[in-house]
Design a protein that fits this description.
Layout (H helix, E strand, L loop, with lengths): L4 H35 L7 E11 L3 H12 L3 E14 H15 L4 E10 L1 H7 L3 E4 L4 E3 L11 H7 L23 H26 L3 H7 L4 E3 H7 L4 E2 L2 H12 L7 E4 L7 H21 L15 E3 L6
Length: about 325
C-alpha cells in the first residue's frame, strides 16, 4: 500500500523534530559534563589546595584519604590548612597530624588559624611547615583531658542503685555511678600523662623548643595570636595572603597560582541517615549537658581522651 504525499510529509517533519530533540539532549549532557569536570578541577591546572579543618576533630578516614590524594596529585603545588577548631579527640588529632605530615613530605604545607585553633586544633597546626594566625586567634591549650559525670548522688535522689559485676577492680573505672577510688584516679592520671607527654614532644620537635619551655607554656592555658608569636607557638600574624607570600618567597611558587578548596567526598546518607545522625547528636548533647559541658559534635561522639578547648560555663 503506497503512502500519499501528506503522510510522507508528516513523517519527514517528525524525523526532523526527533533529530533536533536528540541533538538538544546530547548538547545538554555535554554542557552538564563540562560543568561537572570544571567543578572538579578539570582540565588539570596547577593550584594551591586549601583544606578546611573546622569544628570538632575526629578520626575521619574520608578526610585522610583526601589528604593522601592531595599528596599524590601533581597539580597541587602546596597546601593551606585553614583551621578553625577547638580540638576534639586526641586520637583524631594524631591521625590528622600524621596524614598532613605525609602531605608535607611531598609539598609545602602552611597552616592559617582562624577564630580558634586550640588543643587538638593546635596539634593539627603543628603538622604544617609554618603557622600563620590572626592577632586575636585563640590558640594553645596544650593538654589532654578525660571527663565524666559523677551521678551517684543523683541516682540516690531518684531511687536508683547501680549494680555491677566486673573482672577486676579497675575495669570501667572511673565510673559515673560511684566515687572513684584513689587507685582508679592514679591510673587515669597515668593515662593522661602519657598522652600529654606525646603532645609536648610534638611541641618540642615541631616548634624547636626545649622541654622546659614547652612545659612552661604548655600548661593548658590559651593564647592570642600575638602572644603565640611571642612564645614561639606561631610564626607570623596574618591571613591566607601572608601564607601565600611565604610559599612564593621560600618555595618559589608562582604568585598567581589559584587557591582551590578540596572537600572530602562524604557519602550521601539520604533522609534516613540525616534523621538518624541528628537524633544521635541530640542524645550526645543531652548527655554532655548533664555532665556540665556542651560541645559541638561532628558526626561522631567524643569517646576516649580529648584534646579540646572550651571555657567553663559560669
Amino acid at each position: 500500500m503506497s503512502l500519499d504525499a501528506d503522510t510522507l510529509t508528516d513523517r519527514r517533519r517528525l524525523k526532523r523534530r526527533l533529530f533536533f530533540w536528540r541533538v538538544g539532549a546530547v548538547l545538554a549532557v555535554a554542557v552538564a559534563l563540562v560543568a561537572l569536570l570544571a567543578e572538579r578541577g578539570w582540565p588539570a591546572r596547577s593550584h594551591i589546595a586549601r583544606v578546611e579543618i573546622g569544628g570538632i576533630v575526629v578520626d575521619d578516614r574520608i578526610q585522610r584519604e583526601m589528604l593522601d590524594k592531595i599528596a599524590r596529585d601533581p597539580r597541587v603545588k602546596a597546601v593551606i590548612l585553614a583551621i578553625d577548631s577547638p580540638g576534639g579527640t586526641t586520637t583524631g588529632a594524631e591521625a590528622l597530624y600524621e596524614a598532613v605530615r605525609r602531605v608535607a613530605e611531598e609539598k609545602p604545607v602552611v597552616a592559617v588559624l582562624g577564630t580558634v585553633a586550640a588543643s587538638g586544633g593546635y596539634i593539627v597546626a603543628m603538622s604544617a611547615d609554618r603557622i600563620v594566625a590572626r592577632g586575636n586567634t585563640i590558640t594553645g591549650s596544650i593538654g589532654v583531658i578525660f571527663q565524666w559525670a559523677q551521678l551517684e548522688e543523683l541516682l540516690k535522689y531518684v531511687g536508683i542503685e547501680m549494680r555491677e559485676v566486673k573482672s577486676a577492680p579497675l575495669k570501667a573505672e572511673p565510673s559515673p555511678f560511684h566515687k572513684p577510688s584513689p587507685e582508679s584516679l592514679r591510673v587515669t592520671k597515668d593515662l593522661i600523662d602519657s598522652s600529654y607527654d606525646w603532645f609536648l614532644r610534638l611541641v618540642v620537635e615541631r616548634r624547636g623548643m626545649d622541654e622546659a619551655t614547652a612545659r612552661r607554656i604548655g600548661d593548658g592555658r590559651v593564647y592570642t595570636g600575638w602572644q603565640a608569636v611571642e612564645n614561639g607557638l606561631v610564626d607570623e600574624i596574618g591571613s591566607e595572603e601572608q601564607a601565600i607570600a611565604w610559599l612564593v618567597e621560600t618555595h618559589g611558587l608562582d604568585a598567581d597560582l589559584p587557591v582551590q578548596t578540596w572537600q572530602p567526598a562524604y557519602p550521601n546518607l539520604g533522609i534516613a541517615g540525616f534523621a538518624g545522625r541528628t537524633l544521635g547528636e541530640a542524645i550526645i548533647v543531652a548527655g554532655e549537658v548533664v555532665a556540665g559541658k556542651t560541645q559541638q559534635t561532628k558526626r561522631l561522639t567524643l569517646d576516649g581522651l580529648t584534646s579540646v578547648w572550651q571555657p567553663d560555663r559560669q
